[in-house]
Write a structure and sequence with these properties.
single chain; alpha+beta; 2 domains; 11-stranded mixed sheet; 15% strand; elongated
Length: 423
């Protein structure tokens, strides 16, 4: 039955190839959308785990979330160092993690922070030790893998959030890798972590004895060496620079904090408080509109492929009525002939699904290598989503439905008349 169906498909190879291509493109589109939407959602959820609120300079709350949590946008600016201790004294706040952004190493962001940031993302050391002293850097697993970084290696940071190598502006302040992290599957993998005091020192910002007062992590502070061309704020004379932070990652002690703290910050200070859950949901809903539209197009394409299979099989069944009648006379049961035609549609659909699955993952792999933003979210192009089985089943169903009407014609063939016409 299957060998005969394959022979029939080979007999009209161009039509068969076109049908497989239509279904393949539809399946590839659905596979890409499924993997992209699910992995982006999972990555955002993982990176935001344990953070109830992000505090930063006034501006777009979504930009603040993207820059502070996901490291994929420019910071909104700096906020006073005093905000760290103010929030830590709040009885509704359990944890405050300050961050300082603005420099990079070969495209990977250098973040001034404290060891609790590593704990937030459940990071563990692969080798070496935690950062702390002046110039000490903790290297994310992806940074180490892509740059070949090793323990004890010195490197220079680049001013700004571009992809350039270390420039002359930081020549006198090299960093030294003292530890490398194990992969976490979070934003931690693609960061270089240093202390806030190191960030301040690199940019010539005097912080006096602040580092000693807060050495135990109970009063953190970040200097966000703020760049006018990167964050959109005016340039300051070096003598006027004071220790500042870029953003604060806040975890509540109780539910009352969620009611009181954001309102207090937004109404009574020059800072803004953004809730990751709200902003991430808004972002995913915006992305979802485009994804839903593309998904609808893909299913329409799959339906077009099914219709094409239906027309091809119907025409083939009409053209082969004499052959089918002869098969019946030679002893083939109606069910066997019916199965042969059904097999043609299912084989075509299965081939289209296989081509689509492979094509979808290949295109994703190419997109990840070509687009930096997809690399930033660590999209895995070869990950298999459980929903792909549903797509394959749906496409096979389309092939079966498209084959059903032509196959039913087998039972309506008048053998005598058909053979008489054929002779």
């Amino acid at each position: 039955m299957f060998s005969l169906a394959i022979a029939y498909l080979r007999d009209r190879i161009l039509t068969t190839a076109l049908n497989i291509l239509l279904l393949g493109i539809a399946v590839a589109t659905l596979v890409m959308l499924l993997n992209l939407s699910s992995q982006v959602g999972q990555r955002f959820e993982k990176d935001a785990a344990g953070v109830d609120l992000v505090v930063g300079a006034k501006g777009s709350p979504l930009q603040l979330i993207l820059s502070a949590l996901y490291q994929i946008d420019m910071p909104t600016g700096n906020i006073p160092l005093s905000a760290v201790d103010t929030l830590r004294r709040d009885p509704s706040v359990a944890r405050v993690i300050p961050m300082a952004l603005g420099d990079t190493f070969r495209g990977y962001r250098i973040v001034g922070t404290e060891p609790s940031y590593v704990q937030l993302h459940q990071g563990t050391l692969a080798t070496g030790r935690m950062f702390g002293g002046h110039g000490e850097a903790l290297i994310g697993s992806e940074v180490a893998r892509k740059t070949g970084m090793s323990l004890g290696q010195q490197f220079l940071g680049s001013h700004g959030l571009g992809d350039a190598d270390g420039g002359s502006e930081h020549e006198g302040h090299p960093f030294r890798a003292v530890g490398i992290l194990k992969p976490t599957g979070s934003v931690l993998d693609r960061l270089v972590l240093v202390s806030m005091e190191t960030v301040w020192d690199v940019h010539g910002i005097h912080h006096g004895d602040i580092s000693h007062d807060h050495a135990n992590g109970h009063g953190e502070h970040h200097q966000e060496h703020h760049h006018a061309d990167e964050a959109g704020h005016g340039l300051h004379d070096e003598a006027e620079l004071k220790p500042e932070v870029t953003a604060l990652l806040v975890t509540y002690r109780n539910a009352f904090g969620a009611v009181r703290v954001p309102s207090l910050i937004n109404r009574q200070t020059d800072m803004q408080a953004a809730v990751p859950a709200i902003e991430t949901a808004r972002l995913l809903s915006l992305l979802g509109v485009g994804i839903d539209g593309a998904r609808l197009f893909a299913w329409l394409l799959a339906a077009t492929g099914g219709l094409s299979i239906f027309v091809a099989l119907l025409q083939a069944a009409s053209a082969r009525e004499g052959d089918l009648a002869l098969l019946r006379v030679m002893g083939a049961s109606p069910a066997r002939v019916f199965g042969t035609i059904m097999a043609e549609g299912l084989i075509t659909a299965a081939a289209g699904a296989a081509v689509g699955l492979l094509l979808g993952h290949v295109v994703l792999a190419f997109a990840v290598s070509a687009f930096e933003r997809l690399q930033d979210i660590s999209l895995d192009p070869w990950a298999l989503h459980p929903g792909e089985a549903g797509i394959v089943a749906a496409v096979l169903g389309i092939g079966a439905i498209a084959s059903l009407v032509p196959a039913i014609r087998v039972f309506r063939i008048d053998l005598a008349q058909t053979l008489a016409r054929a002779s």
